[in-house]
């Protein structure tokens, strides 16, 4: 992996923060990844520093500014940082998705658990950096977007809504023609009116598809089997562990 990876660690328990930092540094050394770590003991310290992290480990429960509130503030100015919550309780998952969390690490954690999460997030970042340009005509102008910056396309009334890391765009178009442009970049129909970027698909629960930006999309019953198989193949081909 090219370049330095900035990683923030925030936990009010100094021993846990130090242990996690040591495991991250060791992982970086073993996998030839340059990591730069920053340790904090409250969310307010992270917000005050305002560093652009690649990855941020956030304890959910802290005395002053907890992890959820910290993440909400960070998301106002940083859509790209991969937030990993540190928690003793898995019931925080719903709140984690609300602030676009990448993953969560349950206490007490060991080397194997931390390594598993680090493998997932580093693989994701590496894949994220290998994006493709997609050209679209909007309002008579040709605009170019990186494929990994696009979450999905949705037909809304007679227009196309495109959800991206830079916000939502709406333009005239036909969904089938959009599909022709993006099908080679790992986009797939999950519903007759929605084309989703498989890169941003996090998990499936019933007929709901959860994205890494916290949104939920419907999976059409008629497409469910085919879509799930396509997503599984994509994950298997592109990521070592998910």
From TrEMBL:
InterPro entries named among the record's database cross-references: CheY-like_superfamily, LytR-like, LytTR_DNA-bd_dom, Sig_transdc_resp-reg_receiver
SUPFAM superfamilies in UniProt: CheY-like
Residues annotated with 4-aspartylphosphate modification: 59
HTH LytTR-type domain sequence ranges: 134-233
Gene Ontology MF terms: DNA binding; phosphorelay response regulator activity
Highest taxon of source: Bacteria
Any one Pfam family match given in the protein's UniProt record, by short name: LytTR
Keywords, sorted A to Z: Phosphoprotein
Domain Response regulatory positions: 6-122
Known function: May play the central regulatory role in sporulation. It may be an element of the effector pathway responsible for the activation of sporulation genes in response to nutritional stress. Spo0A may act in concert with spo0H (a sigma factor) to control the expression of some genes that are critical to the sporulation process.
Protein name per UniProt: Stage 0 sporulation protein A homolog
Species name: Eubacterium callanderi
Lineage, opening ranks: Bacteria, Bacillati, Bacillota, Clostridia, Eubacteriales
